[in-house]
Amino acid sequence: MLQLFLLTLSLLPWMPVFHCKVTMDSKYSVLEGGSLTIPCHYGPQHVSNVKYWCQGKTREFCTSLARTDDARRIGPAVEKVSIFDDPVQLVSTVTMNNLKEADSGWYMCGVEIGNLWKADDVAYTYIEVIHGLSAVHSQVSGEEGSSVTAECVYSERLRDSVKMWCRSGDPRSCRSTGSEGIYEDSSVVIRDDRIGAFTVTYKKLEKGDTAWYWCSAGQQKTPVNILVTPLPTTTSTSTSTPPMTNKPPTHLAPPHIESKESKETWHGLT
Length: 270
Known about the structure:
Blueprint: H1 2-11, E1 27-31, E2 36-41, E3 51-55, E4 63-67, E5 81-86, E6 91-96, E7 105-111, E8 121-130, E9 133-135, E10 139-143, E11 148-154, E12 163-167, E13 170-176, E14 182-184, E15 188-192, E16 197-202, E17 211-217, E18 220-229, H2 260-269
Parallel strand pairs: 1-8, 10-18
Antiparallel strand pairs: 2-6, 3-4, 3-7, 5-6, 7-8, 9-11, 11-16, 12-13, 12-17, 14-15, 15-16, 17-18
């Protein structure tokens, strides 16, 4: 039994520990000009190791972009690519800013092992940088009479394009932000932040506003469904007090009174 235990201990360094490997999602998509933050998880045995982020699909040909031991790090809000290690949560976080279509490709998150006998622990992901337009939510809903906002985000090359909001199938319904980046009338407000998003706010929803619409920027457009729900109906239930009924008083049986005659009869018998 002791020999089996010693044999097991000797084999432990060679056994793969699958739950301690580096892991992250296999694919990400982001609009051009936007930012992306990616968590990269590792095992507790890698807490003190250097973490790094590089572009490429093989360890041998991977261009280094960020390392946790780089003393020149500024911060995720300033740098094009930055990496932050949180040893308490066992995760290193990579942030990439101002992404271009040319940045699309394979990337690798790695833990540097630093010896000749074992390769670095790594995980791969594919990042797709898209030029275009998309809706934050493809459907937004609100009660009749309430306010609701739809938001559409666009890529960098569409920042200077005119933004439009149109009811599907009705070209005459289109409303444009114009050169000022804003449109407003009695029922709707459209605002373009000129950075990467524009919003459409209905001030007071009506039943007839339920329809499909188009967010449009340049030649790009994406559908959004507006759903107006009816106001909840409240049924008033009367809680009247039931009429009082004149019930006859409850008569209790009179207490038994022993008569004098019966008492004398009883004494006579004794």
